[in-house]
Amino acid sequence: MKTILMLIVVSFPGLSFVSGAEKITVKGSDTMVILGQRWAEMYMRAHKDVIIQVTGGGSGTGISALINGTTDICNSSRPIKESERAKLSEKQGSRGVEIKCALDGLAIYVHESNPVKELTLGQIKDIYVGKIKNWKEVGGLDQRIILYSRENNSGTYVYFKDEVLGGMDFAKNAQNMAGTAAVVNAVAKDKASIGYGGAAYGKGIRELSVKQDATSPAYAPTMENIRTGKYPISRFLFMYTKSRPSGALKKYIDWTLSAEGQKIVGEVGYFPIR
């Protein structure tokens, strides 16, 4: 996933483009790659004079590209940091423009045979920092818990560490995967495992319901629960540009926020913001 370069125009040989077409580059969050691909595909079908290239690699990679001036749009599953804004200002003369484009519930994955149905935020934290090591400690089978996480350039990793672990370090035995799809694939093959990632990648495994604490009701990461704020682990997904968008770039971003663009957000498993 880290090195995927999605040249969408190559994926659709039936498309033809006029000479001198506008080119838009999109780089960043692996969580948002599928959404970015679908947006690009649908937009280019209706706008033959625009070529959109979508690349993953992680939110940190996308923000670095924005700072270095090698992408028009950075897709990010976390807010840009103040230190990154300062670097952007130093290199590009602008602190960047933030565009919220979708809402995501961060799902907790287990193997479909795991009898555990729900966890509290505290239990999830204790599992990932290594305090809880066996499934029987949270009502499951007598099995050592196998941890799957994301690489530290991932916005999903940063969000999970900040919001779920309270800034604490992951347990040393957590295995870092290159993308959320890789986490899902690993959990689907390992009956004692646990992983986390965007709800759009939840196929083939089971997503746990999550409780604020032991006395709270548990909520699954459904559209309704995330929209209403009942599901405790949710976040905005962002696009960043180095300055206020104009021309073809503005038209494309406006389209992603339109009814047509937001419909695609729902179709790939995320949650529209409009």
Walk me through the structure.
This protein is an alpha/beta fold. The chain contains ten helices and twelve strands. Strands 1, 2, 3, 4, 5, 7, 8, 9, 10 and 12 form a ten-stranded mixed beta sheet that branches. Helix 3 (59-68) runs parallel beside helix 4 (82-92). The radius of gyration is 19 Å and the shape is elongated.
User: Helix tally?
Assistant: 10
Strand fraction band?
15-25%
Secondary-structure-based class equals alpha/beta
What is the terminal-to-terminal distance?
A: 29 Å
Question: What summary fits the major beta sheet?
Answer: 10 strands, mixed
Element string (H = helix, E = strand): EHEHEHEHEEHEHEHEEEHEHH
Overall pLDDT = 90
Classify the oligomer.
Answer: single chain
The Rg value, from CA coordinates, equals 19 Å
Low-confidence stretches: 1-13
Question: Could you say which overall geometry the principal axes of the C-alpha atoms support?
Answer: elongated
Helix content: 25-40%
Query: Can you count the beta strands?
Result: 12
